[in-house]
Design goal:
Helix content is 39%, strand content 14%. It contains 15 helices and 13 strands. Strand 6, helix 9 and strand 7 form a beta-alpha-beta unit.
Length: 392
């Protein structure tokens, strides 16, 4: 058998992302599988989507909805989403020109960045930040500027943000409710964001995939609720997060028509279209049960409170959690090793996978913090807590 001669990497392949390796989420999930650890690392539920959604998916697959969907998304899903956005945020969007269905929120984020960032442009991200932002900027020839959130509450330092903003700033990326901290924005924060951006030509990309997961009576303050910000924003959402179906990879981008037009130029050559039967199934549930999303805060607050109760007798010190489905903990009373080393120790020796905080930073602060995901069944959380109590 003739084997293909190996490519000489240094001569034929010059990486466009030389500093990017395998994501920490993949690394820790693989390690959890190898060691039989309870996976509280990667952010996905271990329970099924609503039965009505699964049944609708099967019905549409059997009913012939198996070919390409329209590039912008199935019309009835965009219409149902527009009604949902108007109920939730008070903004009426045109489903034909202002909403695009994408293959997950990460695709929507990439599409938005690729649509507006040119070589030499600067993009501001707030650290700790989701790890897809900077590679997406680098692929467009842009430069990522990292502005750290303030510890310990992970709030925006608006003075530092204003200093980082200049005539080269093309885009500001925000993510609230925040992954990994669970911090949320207030109306005053939106006003402060508007003030920073008001006299600039910068656009705003708002990653709001956890928009329906907020606690203790709070409301999610979407950029769509702020008229000044909405005019320059792409809001990104995730049906996977909302309906416990992360593997379906269905998200959306909502933006003014001119921005949407540019975003779709990228989208059509990245995935062109998203799963057709999944879109019809999601439209069914949004149309038939529009209030289902209002149940999410109490559903996840019970999980948050239960997990905090379960680890109360450990030496972990939990941070407050206002939104999303992650719990940050300080482990300095247990060990003083670096967070990546401690997360590996937890996974391989204690049998519980966590995500270290440092990979979310360009310049990690000197902290002893890891992230647990509490979007899990009661039995999963109890087993994880039982193992974590071995740490004393």
């Amino acid at each position: 058998m003739v084997r293909r001669e190996e490519l000489r990497h240094e001569r034929l392949i010059s990486s466009k992302l030389p500093d990017v390796g395998t994501t920490i989420f993949t690394v820790m999930s693989r390690l959890a599988e190898e060691h039989g650890a309870v996976n509280l690392g990667q952010g996905f539920p271990d329970y099924d989507p609503p039965a009505a959604l699964v049944e609708a998916l099967a019905r549409h697959a059997r009913g012939g909805k198996n070919q390409y969907a329209p590039m912008a998304g199935v019309r009835r899903l965009r219409e149902a989403l527009a009604r949902h956005i108007e109920r939730a945020h008070g903004l009426a969007l045109d489903p034909e020109t202002e909403i695009t269905i994408t293959s997950g929120a990460t695709e929507a984020i990439f599409d938005a960045i690729a649509a507006v960032v040119r070589p030499g442009d600067e993009v501001i991200v707030l650290d700790p930040a989701y790890d897809s932002y900077e590679p997406s900027v680098a692929l467009q020839g842009g430069r990522t500027v990292h502005v750290p959130l303030r510890l310990p509450d992970f709030s925006i330092d608006f003075e530092e943000l204003a200093r980082a903003t200049n005539d080269r700033t093309r885009l500001l990326v925000v993510n609230f409710p925040h992954n990994p901290s669970g911090a949320v924005l207030t109306r005053a924060d939106l006003d402060a964001l508007a003030e920073v951006l008001r006299d600039t030509s910068a656009l705003l990309l708002s990653d709001e995939v956890y928009e329906h997961i907020v606690f203790d009576g709070r409301e999610h303050e979407s950029v769509l609720r702020h008229p000044e910000l909405a005019r320059r924003s792409v809001q990104v959402g995730s049906f996977g997060k909302t309906f416990h179906a992360t593997g379906w990879k269905v998200g959306w981008a909502a933006a003014p028509a001119a921005l949407t037009s540019e975003l779709r130029k990228v989208h059509q050559f990245v995935t062109f279209a998203t799963s057709t039967p999944a879109q019809h199934a999601l439209a069914d549930v949004l149309e038939a049960e529009p209030a289902r999303v209002t149940e999410l805060p109490s559903f996840y607050q019970r999980k948050r409170d239960r997990f905090r109760e379960l680890i109360a007798t450990t030496r972990f010190r939990p941070f407050p959690v206002a939104g999303a489905y992650f719990q940050l903990v300080d482990y300095s009373d247990i060990a003083l090793m670096p967070d990546t080393e401690f997360a590996r120790y937890l996974t391989t020796t204690i049998g519980v996978a966590a995500i270290p905080l440092s990979p979310f930073y360009a310049a990690p602060p000197d902290t002893t913090i890891v992230r647990f995901c509490f979007a899990k069944n009661e039995q999963t959380l109890e087993l994880a807590a039982e193992r974590l109590r071995k740490l004393g």
